[in-house]
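A.,

Following up on our hallway conversation. Structure tokens first:
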């Protein structure tokens, strides 16, 4: 259900506060679809009821609002209705308390009456409920509705800073975590303008960064139904989205990319996330999760000196020019960009949490705080006033739970003493609230104090880490500086049988480093989701309760360090592999272009590899699609064991076969593949199918009369004046022998 309407389509909108009307509306489209299909077919094909991003606007009244308000707040709102028109009643403070109760009631009804109702409907139809965010459009606690949702969802955009959704992502991830949802998804790679240069290789680091953030299922944006079989690229969503559909040039070889994503997601759906810290979003409305930059004032030294300086410059925003991305859209360079906040807490992960889980679910388990979602947090943070949340308010129920957690032994960080209990309350209630607040903040002039078995720590916290509190870094990189550590994205999950750490090199260069993991007594192994291969890690040691592993990652490479098999060993020293050049295959290739994509007829012979876009032949220069490279070579090696083919550089994907045997699809660094099983002594035939993107053909076709063009699309042409993209196989193409050092 996409809650977005074009101007000419706007009409009546269902009352989101009234369960009876919600059921009526759902029954007349969702229910009707099920009835039309019939129960047998529906049970086979219908699995998910999905609510996409909330784009229909907000709501502050309903035929049930007065009754719901009185039931939830304990008094009749009708007596104070002028405040909803901006007219104070009794006093400004009193009016603001009434308005708070109005906002809280709206937030409660969005969650309970709307999402609670559709969750029940989904259950009745035996399907799962999937939903993106309510905030920022609707007055809400941005996490609350996820308790009713089976599959929480966020949204991230590609090359579209003005439309990217960092808060949506952290809301969905935190909401999923605190309510114990095992699958957290994201609408992925939505783009404001398609450049037609997108391919798996340049999507990978964005996907990996969001996997590390906490996503473990992607919704690809966008696959548009294209009714034509003779128009390419064909129907698009105007120029919105990344082109994931059958007339994408790399759709068939792109299976290797989708396989990679499925393998990563399979691993990241195991067990539960390991998160050390949780931050309270507060009880004002609207409220959203904390993106990393909002935490800097409260734990400055955890972010490090360089980050404090860069944040000072960013927030002052003096002399910083605006930028354009995409080229038609201007944006401010000081906006929150999660790609610049990788591993921001230097080895710690955090969630945000709301009053609902604090009051109704929080408990102490072996010295840690649990919300019954499968994650145990070492400490809770209550930041007090902050950007977009300037009030220092705290409800009596929240304060009482904080006090109880402290007495039980929790570690809790607090900021300034709250001075306001939200909403209309009795004098007795107010006195009780004040007593609890005074008991918690009884030593607020100190930096830390004890209450019962627990510890209160005053914010801002000036430590560099949390080791002194018994919370050591989950992972860190001892031989990397802070800047380089912040280009390694990571996530940790734990099941009954294994711990797995996802690592992603966000740099476009090869890196060799040590990683120190907060685990001991198990053998580390490496799982490569590109190749689907698990291998031993040659060098590691266990000391001081940690395992330090030597890791090599190629440019943009990612994978999993998995701890499963128990060991009493504390040191492993082995020889890492190295590759020796055996043979170079750069010369004398035959190229076969696809004539249905307006490529040249016949075989194109070349003595050396070249960039198609530099050709003097326009049929090659502006070609988009797949080209088959072929050649024969003589293998003179003694054996074919551990023999690899390295393509050097390609643009953009390559399917390799030798002697008719599939040797894999290469789409990301390193562009090499094991050919041991395909290679034979003597004469061999190698075939490499290289595929580029649509950009060059679209640029070339724009120079031709419409009747001579290959391409047709509903996306506006916006590549005027753009340079052609590199395309083809560039090499050096080499046969390598794998050896141990």
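Then the amino acids I'd put at each of the 741 positions:
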């Amino acid at each position: 259900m996409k809650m977005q309407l074009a101007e000419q389509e706007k009409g009546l909108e269902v009352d989101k506060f009234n369960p009876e009307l919600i059921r009526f509306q759902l029954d007349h489209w969702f229910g009707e679809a099920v009835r039309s299909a019939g129960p047998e077919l529906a049970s086979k094909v219908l699995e998910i009821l999905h609510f996409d991003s909330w784009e229909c606007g907000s709501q502050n009244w309903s035929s049930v609002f007065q009754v719901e308000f009185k039931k939830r707040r304990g008094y009749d709102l009708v007596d104070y209705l002028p405040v909803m028109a901006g007219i104070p009643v009794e006093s400004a403070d009193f009016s603001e308390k009434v308005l708070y109760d109005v906002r809280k009631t709206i937030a409660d009804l969005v969650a309970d009456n709307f999402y609670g109702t559709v969750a029940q409907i989904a259950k009745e139809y035996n399907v799962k409920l999937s939903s993106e965010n309510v905030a920022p459009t609707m007055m809400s606690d941005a996490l609350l509705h996820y308790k009713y949702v089976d599959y929480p969802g966020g949204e991230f955009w590609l090359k579209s800073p003005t439309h990217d959704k960092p808060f949506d992502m952290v809301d969905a991830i935190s909401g999923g975590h605190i309510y114990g949802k095992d699958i957290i998804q994201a609408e992925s790679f939505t783009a404001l303008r398609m450049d037609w240069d997108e391919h798996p290789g340049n999507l990978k680091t964005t996907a990996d960064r969001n996997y590390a953030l906490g996503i473990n299922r992607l919704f690809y944006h966008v696959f548009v139904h294209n009714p034509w079989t003779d128009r390419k690229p064909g129907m698009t969503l105007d120029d919105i989205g990344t082109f994931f559909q059958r007339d994408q040039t790399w759709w068939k070889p792109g299976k290797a990319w989708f396989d990679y994503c499925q393998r990563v997601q399979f691993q990241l759906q195991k067990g539960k996330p390991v998160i050390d810290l949780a931050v309270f979003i507060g009880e004002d409305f609207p409220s959203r999760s904390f993106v990393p930059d909002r935490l800097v004032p409260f734990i400055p030294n955890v972010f490090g000196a360089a980050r404090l300086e860069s944040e000072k410059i960013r927030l002052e925003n003096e002399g910083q020019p605006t930028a354009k991305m995409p080229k038609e859209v201007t944006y401010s360079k000081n906006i929150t960009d999660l790609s610049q906040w990788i591993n921001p807490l230097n080895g710690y992960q955090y969630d945000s949490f709301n009053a609902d889980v604090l009051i109704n679910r929080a408990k102490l388990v072996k010295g840690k705080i649990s919300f019954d979602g499968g994650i145990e947090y070492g400490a809770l943070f209550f930041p007090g006033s902050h950007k977009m949340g300037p009030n220092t308010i705290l409800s009596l129920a929240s304060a009482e739970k904080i006090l109880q957690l402290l007495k039980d032994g929790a570690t809790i960080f607090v900021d300034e003493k709250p001075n306001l209990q939200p909403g209309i309350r009795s004098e007795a209630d107010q006195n009780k609230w004040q007593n609890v607040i005074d008991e918690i903040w009884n030593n607020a002039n100190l930096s830390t104090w004890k209450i019962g078995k627990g510890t209160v720590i005053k914010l801002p916290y000036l430590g560099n880490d949390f080791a002194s509190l018994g919370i050591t870094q989950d992972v860190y990189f001892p031989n990397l500086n802070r800047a380089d550590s912040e280009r390694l994205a990571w996530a940790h999950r734990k099941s009954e049988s294994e711990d797995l750490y996802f690592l992603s090199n966000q740099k476009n260069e090869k890196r060799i480093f040590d990683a120190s993991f907060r685990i001991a007594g198990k053998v580390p192994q490496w799982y490569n989701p590109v190749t689907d291969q698990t291998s031993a890690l040659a060098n590691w040691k266990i000391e001081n309760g940690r395992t330090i592993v030597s890791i090599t990652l190629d440019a943009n490479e990612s994978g999993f360090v998995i701890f499963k098999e128990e060991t009493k060993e504390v040191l492993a020293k082995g020889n890492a592999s190295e590759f020796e050049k055996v043979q170079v295959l750069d010369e004398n290739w035959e190229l076969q272009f696809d004539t249905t994509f307006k490529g040249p007829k016949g075989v194109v012979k070349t003595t050396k590899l070249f960039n198609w876009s530099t050709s003097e032949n326009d049929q090659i220069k502006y070609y988009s699609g797949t080209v088959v490279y072929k050649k024969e070579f003589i293998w003179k090696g003694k054996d074919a064991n551990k023999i690899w083919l390295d393509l050097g550089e390609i643009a953009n994907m390559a399917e390799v076969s030798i002697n008719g045997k599939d040797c894999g699809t290469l789409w990301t660094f390193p562009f090499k593949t094991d050919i041991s099983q395909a290679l034979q002594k003597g004469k061999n035939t190698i075939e490499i199918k290289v595929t580029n993107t649509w950009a060059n053909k679209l640029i070339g076709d724009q120079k031709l009369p419409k009747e001579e063009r290959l391409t047709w699309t509903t996306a506006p042409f916006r590549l005027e004046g753009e340079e052609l993209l590199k395309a083809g196989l560039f090499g050096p193409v080499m046969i390598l022998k794998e050896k141990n050092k």
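Residues 1-5 have pLDDT under 50 and may be disordered. Curious whether your intuition agrees with the design.

B.
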